[in-house]
Amino acid sequence: MKSTSSPADLRPTRYDALVAAAVLVLAIAVAVAVYAPARAGGEEPVVVVTAGGEEVYRLPLRQFPDAPVTFTHNGYTLTLRPDASGSDSGVYVAQSDCPGHDCVHMGVIRRTGQSIVCLPAQIVIRLEGGSGGPDLTVG
Amino acid sequence: MKRRFFLPAMLALCLLTSCTVPSAKPEPEPVTAELFAMDTYMSLVAYGDEAQDALTEASQVINDLDRTLSRTREGSDVWNLNHAGSVVPSADTAVLLNAALRYTADTEGCFDITIAPLVEAWGITTDSPRVPSQEEIDALLKKVGPQHLLLTADMARLDKGCAVDLGAIAKGYAGDAVADVFSRYGVESGAVSLGGNVYVCGTRPDGNPWQVAIQDPQGEGYACTLLLSDAFAVTSGGYQRYFTGPDGTVYQHILDPATGRPAQSDLLSVTVVCPNGTRADAYSTALYVMGEQRAWQFWEARDGGDRAFDMVLVTADGRLVVTPGLADRFREEESAPYEVHFITR
């Protein structure tokens, strides 16, 4: 093998360093642009309420009002309130005139995929969107 | 100078080409259905060319089963059996009654559909729950037991004053029926939640297993997550359906057929994972009644056999007990306050 370059020619110069730095910056920028939106999910959880299968309410969780929101269906009324006691905001059924009060017992929901169901009222409150939530919840 | 730029240029090429852009192939659109049936809320999602037809038929099947198997719906097979003492059962009712008797024997009575008279007396999920007197419980316990239900080729009979309640097994059976519908329509990706019963068909459209989170029975989040495909997962626990008596005592809704009272379990919830929805449903109730020690023994005795299953027990003293079949499909929940214990064979 024959070399036409002297050892001095192969020694890195400041131009080489500049090109390497530029390549690194460009690669990181491309990686962030490609992967970051997919990982972040790009949205926050949304509170969706259905009554008898019809959607009656939809609002980003963070914008849920401080004042209680009531929903009436099938002869029963539920009162939904925000909860800010944890690190993430959430909502819960504070009151219900349904028998059993299962919906009240379900407590606060904060994460995508969680839901509160009131069978007598046929009202479902669930958190949609966001990122990182499971596909299904059992229990 | 050109040679000096060769190495950095190659490095640039390597770095940039390694940033492969995610496939531009669009995610298939899900088809969804929701319904209130069998005293619970159900949601179904399916993917594929015939997903819409599959969900339409699955919803129909579930509603038909509800009409047939409901204890409270006048004219259903179970209502007729409980009120008239006998019925010529539909094919589904006959299959399920036979299965229920098998599971009663299998679980040594911890699962028992003849508990219905006591369910009625407690009325825990009704408008007027109450605590029956011990005398009343003792009298009703005499009406409980598989010996009171006689099944022949074309008839089901109950002893006088006895009744059955398929609530602890009917949703599991409905899950099996939905799986059958999905299979006939060629659905290869779908997920179904029938109250506390989950069925996942195939994998998610992206090829990954479905993420099934187990509700934390004493918190607001999840106890853990299971990565499942082609499986049923059913959870039983007393933490959502209960009532508080006049003296402040909490009475949860799962009754122990041996005592006629709410099960005094050292478990907060039991999740059973297996390839059969009916079995998962019956076992989850039975294991909750059994408690941790007997649940272990029950699992161990069936491990490797044709009635094998996996389970996640959430214990009252803060542990998650997980069978080895779920070890590589188990994801711990960082915020959950549980110590994870994997059972070893």
The sequence of SSEs of chain B as H and E is HEEHHEHHHEEHEEEEEEEEEEHHEEEE
Order of helices and strands of chain A: HHEEEEEHEEE
Report the average pLDDT across residues of chain A. 81
Query: Helix segment count of chain B?
Result: 9
What are the low-pLDDT stretches of chain B, counting only 5+ consecutive residues below 50? none
Structural class of chain B: alpha+beta
Q: Which class of secondary structure composition applies to the elements of chain A?
A: alpha+beta
In which range does the helix fraction of chain A lie?
Answer: 25-40%
Q: Main beta sheet of chain A: strand number and arrangement? A: 4 strands, antiparallel
User: Strand arrangement, largest sheet of chain B?
Assistant: 1-2-6-7-10-15-16-17-19
Helix content of chain B: 25-40%
How many strands of chain B? 19
Strand line-up of the largest beta sheet of chain A = 2-1-7-6
- Strand proportion of chain B: 25-35%
Number of strands of chain A: 8
Low-confidence stretches of chain A: 34-42
What features would you describe in this structure?
In chain A, the strands form two sheets. Chain A has a four-stranded antiparallel sheet with strand order 2-1-7-6. In chain A, strands 3-4-5 form a three-stranded antiparallel sheet. The N and C termini of chain A lie far apart (71 Å). The longest helix of chain A has 27 residues, at 14-40. Chain A contains three helices and eight strands. Chain A is rod-shaped, with a radius of gyration of 27 Å. Residues 34-42 of chain A have low confidence and may be disordered. With 139 residues, chain A is of the alpha+beta class. Chain B is α+β, with helices and mostly antiparallel strands. Chain B has nine helices and 19 strands. Chain B has helices spanning 2-18, 51-69, 77-84, 91-106, 116-122, 134-141, 170-184, 277-290, 292-302; strands spanning 31-37, 40-47, 86-87, 149-151, 156-158, 189-194, 197-202, 210-215, 222-228, 231-237, 242-244, 250-252, 255-256, 261-262, 267-274, 310-315, 319-322, 330-332, 339-342. Chain B has a nine-stranded mixed sheet. Chain B is globular, with a radius of gyration of 24 Å. The mean pLDDT of chain B is 92. The interface between A and B is large, with 44 and 57 residues. Strand 8 of chain A pairs parallel with strand 8 (210-215) of chain B, so a sheet runs across the interface.
